[in-house]
Amino acid sequence: MNTAMSVLLCLLTGYFIGSLSPAFFVGKVRGYDVRTSGSLNAGASNTVIMAGKLAGVAVALLDIFKAAAAWKLCERLFPSLPTAGILGGVSAILGHMYSVFLRFRGGKGLACLGGVILAWDPRSFLLLLGVAILIGLLSNYVCVVTVGMSVIWPAYFGLMTGFWLGAALLAVPAAPIFCKHLVNFRRIRTGEELRLSYLWKKDAELKRIGRQ
Does the pLDDT of residue 1 top 70, yes or no? Predict the structure, then answer.
């Protein structure tokens, strides 16, 4: 199989795996459409808002798993392609954000970003998870975590491996992730964005933004 075909198959494999949306399925079971309810985001954070913390954690874990699975599967299927795992993982993130099954709507990429890191190196996953938690606690906004990690992760990969082509590919989702979060940054400016502290101060946060 030539390189171009291998690249194409990696992209398609990752994209279709990423397009599977646990948040959408949970919403259907609970009787709501995640695309038109809550924050209108087909991801774990909106599942927390609409269905509770336990459901949100389950969705996050499944999103992590699908991105990791895309990376590992592409590595296994195309062992002669050095970027196979990277292409599969990046495509899974984009599939999650622009799912073909949800009319090209989806989540915002944080959990899938974590899945890609986990597939590459579990120790780095734990390290960068610590960085993400620190950013979250300092900023108190999930959108800052996601946008920040979309930049920090490719830079970290490049510095650790010296494989800057791979780092450049891993940076591809950063632009769409930033664009997806523009609405969140606008809501921060107007005081309408839920803070991360919603997880432990739900009533206070809802009151702050006028939803209670």
Answer: no
User: What does pLDDT average to over the chain?
Assistant: 94
Residues 106, 112, 116, CA angle at the centre, nearest 5°?
150
Question: What's the confidence (pLDDT) of residue 212?
Answer: 63
3-state secondary structure 71-107: HHHHHHHCCCCCCHHHHHHHHHHHHHHCEHHHCCECC
Written as six digits, the tokens of 146 are 């996601």
Three-class secondary structure of residue 41 per DSSP: coil
Rg (CA), the chain: 17
Token pair 């494989």 is at which residue?
A: 163
Q: Which of 23, 24, 21, 18 is nearest to 119 (CA)?
A: 18
Instruction: Give me the residues paired with residue 105 across strands.
Output: 99
